[in-house]
Amino acid sequence: MGAPDAFDEVLKSTPDITYVLHMASPVGPNADRALEDVFFKPVVEGTKNIFNAIRNLANDSVKNVVLKTSWDFVEREKPNFKLTTVHPPLVFGPQKFDVAAKKESLNASAEIVGSLLRTKYPSDDKLFDDPVSISVDVRDVALYHVLPLLDTGLASRRLLVVQSKFSAQRILNIINESFPELKIAVGKPEETARLEALKGPEYNNSVSIALTGVDPIPLEKTIVDSVKQILRANK
Predict the structure, then answer these.
(1) 175-205 pLDDT per residue, tens
(2) Is the dihedral of CA 106, 107, 110, 111 positive or negative?
């Protein structure tokens, strides 16, 4: 998607496109290739290219573009479409199909859950303090991308979709409470709140919740649904 004409053909061949959702983005660097080629070019150039393709090739039916990226193009070019951006943190949740959960190593965020499922009880009682951040359920990310297509009041908005703070220790706690038969590591559950208060980033998604009317799926449901799928897929 970093090539200048990467999106031209699809817009030429499908002139009745009404909405564009641009969601592709690499999660992190690849050790075998330069950081600029793996991460920055696809993110920055891919975004510019989809904007330019819409401006140059699409007709006036393009009403809304949902992107996780910069507003610079819209401010500079004043195009004939509206922009809404969706800003998720680390994304957890079940895969679309069970077969995708039947792997030794899952994708970057899902593998956090997968790796904790491979820990062993009774463990060394260490605190599982990495990672610590904020998260969201993949199903809410999907919903937030669709809502601007249905509600014109969400045009020209930045939507922050977050469920809560999380830590590897909290995920362990949830798994142990919901699936005690798995006998995975315990860590130090009593340190969870202090850990997240100390290291977890602060956020305020109240405006996005008010605009969309959507209460985020709680982390507990996200993790339980993910573990159920992993266990089901690997029977």
Answers:
(1) 999 999 999 999 999 999 999 999 999 999 9
(2) positive
